[in-house]
Every structure is written in C-alpha cells, then in structure tokens.
Amino acid sequence: MVRTFARVAGIIYLLVGILGFFPALLSPPMGPDLAVDAFHGRLLGLFPVNLTHNIVHLAIGAWGLASAGSFSGAVSFARGLAVLYVILAIMGLIPGLNTMFGLAPLHGNDIWLHAGTALIAAYFGWGAARDDATLSR
C-alpha cells in the first residue's frame, strides 16, 4: 500500500511538473512578485507555479518513483513528503515566506493543496506503513 502511494504520488508530481512548462495551461499570475518569473502563472487557473516550483515537482516525482522500489524507501518518502509539505503549507501562510524568498510561489490554493498532501502522506508514512509492516510478518 505504501509502495503504491509512492509510485502514484511520483507519477502525479512528474505530470504536474511537466504540465507547468506548458504556457497554454498557465493563467496570469496573482500575488506577490517573484525573483524567478519564468513560467510564472496559475496552473489550470488554480495553483501558482513557476520554473522553480516545476523543477521541485519533477524532483519529488522522481523521488517518489525511485523510493517505490522498497517498503522502507516508500515509507521514508511518505514521511519526508509529509514533513516537507507541512512546512510549505505553513510558509504559505506567512507573508515574505509565501514566495520562498522570491524563488517559488507557495500562496493561494497551494496552501490547502500542500496541507492536504501532507495529511495523505502522513497517513501512508505512519498509519498505513504500520499496517503494511504488520501484514508482512
């Protein structure tokens, strides 16, 4: 179950990272200005992204796919993703930090998306991982 989560999350993040490079899928940006304005806009009209954000999505996707090969790797991915995304959701609420110092937008709809991702990843990293470990014994 945890390995499937890592695989599916990896695929989703790779796809989202790739979609962020298609200007036709980006609406004009709203919110604070960024130092990195390449590919800056709202993906599908909802989620603020830019070049840095897209690259991070690609990296997380690769991490998820690479970690899905083993139970321990998938658990580490889920737990790491949960911690990272809690931090990003909190940063999105704080003016000044909600652009990661001008590098990537973390505001708007990204806040609830990051918080939701953190909750799902925490479930798989701690709850489902415990169940999977018990079943494999």
From TrEMBL:
Q: Name one Pfam family in it.
A: DUF4383
Per the UniProt record, which residue ranges are transmembrane? Answer: 7-26, 55-75, 82-105, 111-129
- Which keywords fit this entry according to its UniProt record? Membrane, Transmembrane, Transmembrane helix
Protein name listed in UniProt: DUF4383 domain-containing protein
Naturally occurring in which organism (per UniProt): Deinococcus aerius
